[in-house]
Amino acid sequence: MSEKKGSELTYSDITPKGAFASRRNFLFGMAATGAAVGGWKYLPRWFSGPGKGSVPHPLSGVAKWPYDATDKVTPEGDVTTYNNFYEFGTDKSDPSQNAKNFQTSPWEVSVEGEVKKPLKLSMDDIMKIAPLEERIYRHRCVEAWSIVVPWIGYSFSHLIQKAEPTPKAKYVAFQSYYDTRQMPLGPQAGIAFPYVEGLRMDEAMNPLTLLCVGMYGETLPNQDGAPVRMVIPWKYGFKSIKSLVKIRFVKDMPPTTWNIEASNEYGFYANVNPNVDHPRWSQAKERRLGEFFRRPTLMFNGYADQVASMYAGMDLRKNF
Ligand SMILES: Nc1nc2c(c(=O)[nH]1)N[C@H]1C(S)=C(S)[C@@H](COP(=O)(O)O)O[C@H]1N2
Ligand SMILES: [Mo]
Q: Can you give the pTM of this predicted structure?
């Protein structure tokens, strides 16, 4: 195809998967030269039509982030078919099957609580808060499997700044979408919904904490948390809450789904820690999807330089 600037791309440029790869590389190359940032657009999910669910579509003008994990990126097909998203079923293959018709447009995220500026954000609003970046992060599930994913989003701190938390805000509480009409398997999952999570304010402000709207060059597939999720790469995967609808700034440590279900197994912090075993299995190693041999798990999932100082003086065996 002929080369166009990110801002010149039109709907007709939205191409099937294979043909897209070359343009994706081109766009990231452009961003690296500093030309494309700001030209991004959130393209509506029009092409599957109402009632048929939504399918991922390319995101343009995504800048390259300079601190990527250098591990081999996990094949997209693994990341989109091996999921935890209990609202759509508890088997790893369930979400890709059962989230196909999940309606994610229109979408609204409510930002509330201890803030000077409560917000009701549409996806278009969310896409405008900060320029999008592609960030390759390692992602480690508490179940000892891991993936390496090129996520698309921006530091959650940009949204925090927009909401202007008051000095009383010490934690951020997150809540996922939940509706049994769209998630009929939810009641059988054995855990309470809506799914809730939380971060301490400094964790939420850490530049690694990503408000995520896409992966592999496109908007998020439903099974990976469309249309907007959190990604917190130094914590076990269950902290990275999907399909966000509520962000509440609060005074006290908020309840979190897996801690509610089994507080002896899942703590609030959930920092990846090879030295603290899960009561039922070791956390020393992990299986990277697509690989055969297990690899050692790294402290803070390899992000210690960026995050360890936030936990200085804390007993990480107690605060697991
Ligand atoms: N709403 C919601 N968010 C969720 C979950 C879930 O069941 N429901 N599972 C969590 C867990 S345990 C993991 S490992 C990651 C998986 O994200 P992925 O499927 O995109 O790899 O999502 C997390 N976010
Ligand atoms: Mo997980």
A: 0.87
